[in-house]
Design goal:
10 helices; single chain; about 75% helix; mainly alpha
Length: about 270
């Protein structure tokens, strides 16, 4: 009899999980579809942009330097830094806009702000993983890179980019809801980020005391970790992945707690 009485409660939880999964799936597909249709060419342009960036930077490197700071191939050196950096940047940007862009859908009781955040994160992961695979595969097909991929180290680097990106995105979403000008301020602050994150140089070759200052940039560790994944000879002793991952988890916890507390107020402000 007890088992029979518990059945409705179990069925209710199962239905709620199914509705949540269905809502996240629908929001993820919507995000992928809308992001692809924003420009002519859709996903083709999404792929072309980082490829073009890597090509341009490779030409600049070859004109300025006789060899890359690590290894023998400019393309793979820049790609290993830029792609994981772009993973973090895209994740943070999409999560920042999660609540604002899903404002109309959040009026429905079956869709929550957590569903919107998860959908944005999944869409970013799918897009950036495809870009990373296509670019790295293309480089290794056309050039002799003399690198050796250590998949476990690469997964740790991507994990750091995802966690940190979600955390930064959630905090930015909260700040922008109450201080819209922050979106413009954050854009300005982020412009030099690619220059101070070790994308076009090796962090451990930066002279002191600037090396110690740049260590506090969590993206430096993510980029360094990805370089370690491709260059077995590169030790990257400065890399401490517990820093960006731990920081990201703390920001996620704070962001979710504040969103849970003020989500209705935030929706009225957007």
């Amino acid at each position: 009899m007890a088992e029979y009485d518990d059945a409705p409660e179990w069925t209710g939880r199962k239905d709620r999980r199914f509705r949540t999964l269905r809502a996240i799936s629908a929001l993820t597909i919507r995000e992928l579809a809308t992001s692809s249709s924003r420009t002519t060419g859709g996903y083709a342009w999404t792929l072309a942009e980082p490829i073009a960036g890597i090509a341009v930077m490779s030409v600049i490197f070859s004109l300025i330097l006789r060899s890359p700071p690590l290894g023998t191939n400019f393309q793979i050196f820049y790609a290993t830094g830029f792609l994981v950096f772009n993973f973090y940047r895209d994740m943070a940007g999409r999560v920042t806009n999660a609540v604002r862009s899903s404002r109309a859908l959040l009026q429905y009781p079956s869709i929550t702000y957590v569903d919107a955040v998860i959908a944005k994160a999944l869409a970013s992961m799918v897009t950036q993983t495809i870009i990373m695979f296509v670019v790295l595969t293309g480089i290794t097909m056309f050039w002799e890179t003399r690198t050796e991929l250590h998949a476990a180290l690469a997964v740790v680097a991507v994990t750091g980019a995802v966690v940190l990106g979600i955390g930064v995105g959630l905090i930015n979403a909260l700040i922008i809801a109450y201080l819209p000008m922050w979106q413009h301020v954050w854009t300005v602050l982020n412009r030099p980020l690619v220059l101070i994150s070790g994308v076009i140089y090796l962090h451990d070759r930066v002279p002191q005391p600037y090396q110690d200052y740049l260590w506090w940039n969590p993206v430096v560790h993510i980029v360094g970790q990805m370089r370690r994944a491709f260059y077995p000879q590169y030790t990257g002793d400065y890399v401490t992945m517990s820093y960006p991952i731990g920081l990201g988890l703390v920001l996620i916890a704070i962001g979710l707690a504040l969103l849970n507390r003020f989500n209705r107020d935030i929706l009225t402000r957007l």
